[in-house]
Amino acid sequence: MLQYGALSETAKLPTNDYRHRLKRSRPAELYNFNFEPFTEKKLWPDGIVSYRFDSEYPLGWMRDRVLQAFDLIQKLSCIRFQLVNENYKGSFVRLTNGDLCSSQVGRLTDIQEGQVLSLPAWCLRRPEGK
User: Fold this and answer.
1) Considering the domain boundaries, does residue 107 fall inside one?
2) CA atoms within 13 A on the CB side of 127
3) Of the ranges 43-47, 79-83, 103-107, which one carries the lowest mean pLDDT score?
4) Which superkingdom (predicted)?
5) Which of 26, 33, 51, 98 could form an S-S bond across to 118 if both were Cys, CB 3.0 to 4.6 Å?
6) Is 76 left (phi over 0), alpha (psi -120 to 50) or beta?
7) Is residue 85 part of a domain?
8) How many independent structural domains does the chain possess?
């Protein structure tokens, strides 16, 4: 899995041939490159992405950095972010302080605990001196 911040400007993305060799050399359940096709259900209704921070997500500069990114995305696109509380029943993104910078692509509709968006500190490039 590629990780944000792990690529240099000269790094190359894996080719299909590389993926094929990887699948043949490792157990199939570890590497699933058969993603669900893009459909309308993967879009967030009206471009509004509902989100909330996991209760364990640190306060301070990490949350500030995420909110700054949301603001930038809102300024440059038609996507909007809406903070929801723990009683919210619809689809939402749950920001966690996991081990990797990762998330599924598009909206997942069958996850009651929220679609995990893992953003640990190293993923957010903590500013010097803070």
Assistant:
1) yes
2) 7
3) 103-107
4) Eukaryota
5) 98
6) alpha
7) yes
8) 1
Contacts of 3 (CB under 8 A, 6+ apart): 100, 101, 102, 123
- What CATH number did the domain enclosing 77 receive? 3.40.390.10
Q: Which domain, by its residues, includes 62?
A: 38-124
Structure tokens at 31: 């590497």
Mean pLDDT of 71-78: 96
> How much is the CA Rg of the chain, to the nearest whole Å?
17
